[in-house]
Amino acid sequence: MIKLTSETKVGLFVIVGIALLVIMSLKLGGVDIASDEGYELRMRLDNAIGLDPGAAITIAGVEVGNVQTIALDGSKALITIKVRSGVEVMQNYTVALKTSGLLGEKYLALIPSIKPAPLLRDGDEIKSIAAYSDMDRLITALSDVAVDIKKVTGALGDVLGGEDNQASLGSIIKNLQDITGSVNSIVSENDVRFTTVMKNMESFSASLRDITEMLAANKGNFNATMTNVREAMETLNKIAPNVDSTASSISKIAQRIERGEGTIGKLLNDEETHRNINKTLTGINTFIDKAGRFRTFVSYRSEFLFDESDTKNYVSLRLQPKPDKYYLIEIIDDPRGHRTTSKKTKVVNGQTTTANVTTTDDDVTFSAQVAKRLGNLTLRGGMIESTGGVGLDYHMFKDRLKFTFEAFDFDTDRETHLKGGLTLAIHKYFFLTAGYDDFISDSGLESAYAGIGFQFEDEDLKFLFSAMPSLNF
């Protein structure tokens, strides 16, 4: 492999850096150098009030895209939406303008049909539009109810308002009087039946007398029952002093509690105890909230060093208590080890000789860094590969591409270890990486590299590390 001088390597690295700065400038300047995945669909609504660009597009409650533009097309609102790649929308889908909650934001829901149909492609239009949103239907229903109430009150006004209707009302009252007279006549004509009812009541009274006589016959049993009741009362009278004593003890205990004596008294009456309990509850709530926000990521990557024809492996643990701050712990297996060169002088037969001695340390090193994110830029610092160092990461394209630069091992016996590279996320869990490691080395350790890795979030570790103290900066 062709060996490049340090000046050539630095020049190449500067060229790469300038190219990256151009890409960053284009991105920050609003120039779109990468298009989002997905395809666009159109629809025409009679009323798009409350719907804004960026509003969510859902299927079965799952967000699958968002509104791109809203424009006026004749007397209708022309809506352009973008649906994520991999989401299939058929021609017989129905669009409904809905509201999230009673006073929430508007969004568009795509309602599937039970019948199969051809798929829509980029630029196609959805024809089936639901008539009203949920809130519009509610307002329409309330309007219908108000109209019905108005009709009822109007009808009552018509019935009671005119002279003819008042005459009709008087006729109704006269009819009621006639009905009352008829009832009185019926009662008079049924005196015989009422007499029969009275005889039945007399028979019922006779039955009650028989029951009374039966109770008299069982008077002895009743007396025995009363005797048992009296004995029970006597027993209660004997217990009463003990009850009084118990009540007195309870009263004394209540008085001590009211004075703030004893554990329960202090718990209920002492202000300091109240404050301590409130502090404890606040601490518990803070811990639960902190545990909910704490995130942990585990990753592994392997980098093939072309000059060494061997791999350099990393096992990483990222502890992230906040979205803009995290701690990074790594174990690195470097086949080159950590080499240092020193000069040793020997005197043999009166002659002095000087030789360079290279020492290789253990090939397993460790990193422990603190990182802070500022917009698209992340600054890191701490221990890198068992030596002090700093690093920075620049995130692009919604964090799918990351430029990384590290400087560490500031040993006076050798050049500073500089490493630069790019990391590209190709999947939710997998990523590719490439770059140049130790590119100004004076010990022959420089090498280009390329590799692959994976990363996942571990929910089980978050509660273990959420109790650890965090640094605020």
Task: Give an overview in words.
Keywords: Membrane, Transmembrane, Transmembrane helix. It comes from hydrothermal vent metagenome. One of its GO terms (molecular function) is phospholipid binding. This is Mce/MlaD domain-containing protein. With 473 residues, this protein is an alpha+beta fold. Among the domains are: 92 residues, no CATH class; 144 residues, Beta Barrel (Lipocalin). The protein is 39% helix and 34% strand. The chain contains 8 helices and 19 strands. The strands form 3 sheets. The protein has a 10-stranded antiparallel beta barrel. It has a 7-stranded mixed sheet with strand order 1-4-3-2-6-5-7, with no helix packed on it. Strand 14 and strand 15 form a beta hairpin. Helix 2 packs across helix 3. The relative contact order is 0.07.
The helical percent reads 25-40%
Largest sheet features: 10 strands, antiparallel, barrel
**Strand fraction:** 25-35%
H/E element sequence: HEEEEEEEHHHHHHEEEEEEEEEEEEH
- Reading side by side through the largest sheet, how are the strands ordered? 8-9-10-13-14-15-16-17-18-19
Radius of gyration: 45 Å
Helix run count: 8
Low-confidence stretches: 28-35
**What structural class results from the helix and strand content?**
alpha+beta
The CATH architecture of the domain at 295-337 and 365-465 would be Beta Barrel
